[in-house]
Amino acid sequence: MLADFYALMGVSPTATQEEIRQAYQTLTIQLQPDARPGSAAAERLRLLDEAYRVLMTSALRAGYDAQWRQAITKAPPPVASVLPGTATIPFARGARGDASASPLRLSVTPASAISAPLKEPERYYALAELSPAGQPIASPAAPLNLAVMIARSMTLRDQALMETRRALDALGALLRPEDRLTLVTFDEQASVALDGESVAGRRDVGQALEPMAPRGPARLSSALGLALERSAAHITPTGVSAFALIMNSAPADEERAGTLDLAERARQLGVQIVALGVGPDWDRDLFDQFASVTGGVCAFVDDPSRLTRILTWLVERLRATLASRLRLTLEPAPGVSVLRAARIAPELSYAFEGPHTPGAPVGVELGTLAGGAEACGGVALWETLLEPSTLSVSVNGSLELGTIHSSYWAPQVDGGRVIRDSAPLRAPQASGATPPALAPDARLALELLTAYRLQTLAERLASDDVEEACAALDTAALRLASAGAATLAEETRQASVALAHGLADAGVTISRVRYSVRNQSLFHHLRHMRG
Fold first, then answer.
1. Model-level pTM?
2. What's the chain's average pLDDT?
3. d(C-alpha 527, C-alpha 506), whole Å
């Protein structure tokens, strides 16, 4: 099999010689301390030297590129419906075959073989996916129970008020008689403007949102508590429930613990939170955690005029629900600890970042999976630490790393029920000097996750350490290019340039590209493009 020199170097196939040189220098510096004769680092250095020699020689690179193009099949992909305001991203269709009683299938992918024998603690990655079983189907429309929470500060500016009202009017036009809408507005206190009402066909729903100067800081816990109280009565076995939070300011710091407790309560009730941060001043960390806890969506809304499209997308996505409350859990075997866990699809985000407890299971909430011909799976990635002294070996010589458990709510199966499945996680052992290669899906997930982590770091550093923030963005661009996301890589580079030159909108540019990486179903698209 032809080696992927671009992936090995961590650069795009369109990388310049200067980008290749910088990547080579960075990687060799990182590997040198561990490059003992016969070690995995030494073998990787040898491969890097070969990749550098080929890619830096024009004639050799041209021949290599020709062989590489022949090795890749490029079938035209279908088009997915992603969060409005981001690019339209195609992705692979679900697996085909005979339909089964369970609408989803669990698959487990160990990241690589493990060099035998394992002599010291080693990091190891595992990927799991819940994807449509058999032919993707169009699920019957589920009744919706939707609560919209709007900070009163959204009503202070004429444009924000007008666009928010317009979005609510569009929502009323989309909802059906069996759907229920709760509207909560809040500042220091929360109040109910619509109380679980059927607003089907109404085009004046936005008039329920009255302009009002905030009375003190926004108390998000008050709004969440009230939304839970009023919408709980409308949660049904065959329905789908969600909260949409629209906010252009940050809640008080003391609110954080209480709001996350309420988010966990929402998750237990089967409610996902779609957190929409408008403008530059909302709490990104808190909204990201809402998405992680409930399997919902966190999005940056740089222009209030996007709210109509986003709420329309939300209704269409929820109405086509094939399964909800998707959860994947790694139960580690003896000798295995979970360091970190992340959701890779449908939305990219960290779910768990330690501290780890040996043997403790770690779950990842994946939210809702929509049916239809373009359905794709929910994917989770775990980073583990292996302790060789206590690992078990199976009969076939593989290392026993644990069990992956899946669970989800299938609203259209038997009137609505929970479906569970399990699969073993085993890592094959490899021998020889050549380091085992990462499975393509695991490598792709890591590239995207690393890019997103670096973009998040840059966003936090932008006001205090511009140089470090730009370095993080530049490295994120390399990871995106290596993954094949050339457009997003270029946008990330441009965000770095904007920040380095002190442009006023640099912060907005960084947020925009970070949430594009998060919300574009990139994993499925790029996996398909790689064949």
1. 0.78
2. 84
3. 31
